[in-house]
Amino acid sequence: MREKTIIVEGLEYRYGKITAVYNISFEVARQEILGFLGPNGAGKSTTVRILTGQLRPQTGKITVFGMNINQNLKRIQTRIGVSFEQPNLYEQMTALENLNLFASLFNMVNFDAMSLLKKVGLTGREKEKVASYSKGMKQRLMVARSLVNNPELLFLDEPTSSLDPASADSIRNLLLEVREKGATVFLTTHDMWEADKLCDRVAFLN
Which of 54, 145, 149 is nearest to 159 (CA)? Predict the structure, then answer.
């Protein structure tokens, strides 16, 4: 039986009187790419915010890397990478500066930013301010940033939504490479074709 990276049991979360997530349970195995699908408002983003420590679960139990998320959040966060759909980069800095800054936050030694930028197709533009980047270029930089700390668990929200077909393929191949090296990938998407092409399993949230 494969080791479980994520175990969610009876998770619930409410915003006031609005129930965003109601009694969901699921598991994600190590080195699995799980597609997390559902319509807008189904609770996907809330679930991801809880799994990444931005929100605390109100009901239920979450175990990540065998640790209770409420008791070991900081330890868990050092081992995960996150890329959201909406860009949250430092736009007055270059791509190189963005990656090197995050590497310093993780105390990375001998960090090679150019290697990551090459993998997402941004070489030649690495010294330009991110403010001048297209939406697709920012999306690729956010994926690169999520890999800075060599995460064992990667959360991605619509990682190819703004990309041309060639760039989207390069990101998919990168995610498969990350999985082959031992990481688990939690992929939120609306794209059934993307999920079918990339994921080992899918979970539908209604």
Answer: 145
| DSSP H or E segment with residue 38 | none
Q: 192-203: buried (b, 16+ CB within 10 Å) or exposed (e) per residue?
A: eebbeebbeebb
Against a cut of 0.85, is the pTM above it?
yes
Nearest 10 degrees: Cα torsion 27, 64, 148, 139? 40
Bridge partners of 67, per DSSP, are 64
- Sequence-distant (6+) residues with CB within 8 A of 160 are 139, 167, 168, 171, 172, 191, 194
**Tens digits of per-residue pLDDT, 126-165?**
999 999 999 889 999 999 999 999 999 999 988 888 788 8
- The C-alpha angle with vertex 195 and arms to 191 and 199, in degrees rounded to 5, equals 160
Enter the tokens of residue 86.
């909406």
Give the integer Cα–Cα distance in Å for 16 and 20. 10
**Interval 8-39: pLDDT, tens:** 999 999 999 999 999 999 999 999 999 999 88
Tokens 């409410």, residue located? 14
